[in-house]
Give the backbone structure.
Amino acid sequence: MVMLSPTPGRNRKTMAVGIPTVDLSQDRSVVIELIIKACQEYGFFKVTNHGIDKEIVERLEDEAVHFFSKPASEKQRAGPANPFGYGCKNIGRNGDTGELEYLLLEANRLYISKRSETISNDPVEFSCAANDYVQSVKELTCEILDLVAEGLWVLDKHVLSRLIRDVQSDSLIRINHYPAVNEVKGGTLPKTIGFGEHSDPQMLTILRSNDVAGLQIQLQDGFWVPVLTNGRFVSVRHRALANSHKTRMSMMFFGAPSLNTWISPLPEVVSPNNPSLYKPFTWSEFKKAAYSLRLGDTRLDLFKTP
Ligand code: GA4
């Protein structure tokens, strides 16, 4: 998971210090080293100097603020989020809930344009904002995956990014809106869970938040692109709290391959001494397994070699 640094001028702290930060404007070899270390140790890092246009981010954020401020009956026109659209409190298909509402969309130009008609009174405006955002975070995703491939000494430097650029890529975009939960002065209310603990099943997540605290990550757990890297990278377990006095909003791009893509370790990360830990499977099989389980469940065990 990669977190975009806040736009300049909006520099409040959103997380505890000490999380790995990668300045993408540094020397390429330094950037690669930092990314590989962060993927192995945390499965999470923050990027600065990522080059994503502040206006592109703000346009989609403004559209989302406008959408979430509508009356429930209007928002429900875009729902339920099964599989895509507007969702409120219900997460996934197996009874998970959270204190949030959200939009879950396919990150594909045509789907976004069609879906926009139920989301906005000005669908062209919404779909332009969403498509521009998707295009720029997708570019960043591909740039990071190329750096990852290079850091893993993979011969085909675009082997990972090609999966995201594929027109059939199953990438998603999600905008979460956590309304403020007013804390009682001097009271010690239990923390309200906005989105429960889980790890994302996709290859890479790019997250951008509106600078309101809430995201928490768990250290040293899970796997990230686990099969492709044969367990070398970790997928961070994370959750979001909704206990601040402010409304939190986050926008995620989940980079995924096409449904029929076969997933197995990159040849460069296996050897006779380090054999494949997982049976090959398709993204569709893995996604199906993830979606049939609860939010916090782990799913990779299902694909371990005997
Ligand atoms: C986590 C990452 C993405 O938000 C998501 C989520 C999906 C959903 O909200 O429907 C899942 C969750 C996510 C993982 C396990 C399953 C599926 C909810 C859930 C209980 C859209 C995704 O692809 O997987």
